[in-house]
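Two proteins, back to back. First:
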Amino acid sequence: MLLTWGGGCLPLAVLGAADQLGAMIAALFLCGALTSGAGVIWGTLLQRRVPPAMLGRVSSLDFFVSLSAAPLSMALVGPVAAAWGSRPVFLVAAVAPLTVAVLAIALARLRRDEIDHPLTRAR
C-alpha cells in the first residue's frame, strides 16, 4: 500500500518537466490510478484492524487528519513555486511521498503486521 501511494506520486515529476498537455494528462491519470488503489487498501485495513465499535471515530479522525494538511499545502505551494519555480515543487511532490513510504516500511513494523494478520476470505 505504501509503495503504491509513494510510487503513485512519481508521475507528478512529469508536470514540472512536460510542456505537452497529453503527457500531463497521462501522468495525472497514472498518479490518480495508483494512489486510488492505495486508498482502497487503506480503507480495507481500517475496517479489518479497527474494532467495529470504534470504526466511526477512527475513520472520522483519519479523514480529518488526512485533509487538514491540504489548506496549508495549498497556501504554501504558491509562494514556493513563485520563489523557486514549478519544476522543483513538482519534483519534491513526486519524490517526497516515495521517500516517506520507504522510510515507513523500513522503520515501522508494517511487514510483520501483515504476516501476523493476513487477509483471508470473509466468513
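And the second protein:
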Amino acid sequence: MSKVNALFHIVFATKDRRPFLLDTFREDLHKVINDIIISKKSRLHSINSVTDHLHMLVDLNPTVSISELIAAVKACAHNWMKTDSRAALFNGWCSGYYACSCSPSHKTSIETYILRQTEHHAIHLFDKEIQKMCDVWNLSYHPEDLK
C-alpha cells in the first residue's frame, strides 16, 4: 500500500481583495471548506481567514491535483455564501492562488502561523506577506495575482 504525505500551505483572496469574509459567518465558512476538502479525500489541518483572504494547510490526496482542490473549494464556498444572507455582499474569489508544499517537520509552525492570522495582520500588510512568502517559496510575485 502506498503512503503519501503531501502538505500544502494555500493562500487565496477575495475578488479585488474586498473585505467580505466577516466574523459573522467565518467559522461556518471554514466548516464548509473542510467538508469540501474531505469530499476530495484530503485533510484540512488548519484554516484561518481575515476579511480579505484565507490560509489553509492541507494534506492533499495524491489522486487530486492542487488546482482541482482549489477550484472546488472556491466554487462550493462561493455557492454556499450566495445562499447565506450573512455573506450577501461577497462577490467572488480572486482568480489566482499561492500554494507551496511543506515539510511535515514544519507542520506545527505553519499551523501556528495560520491560526495567528488576526494578530499577524494587525501588524503586517497582506501584500508584504505575499511578497515575503513568494521569496521564501521561490515564486514570482505579481500584485495582480490575487485580484
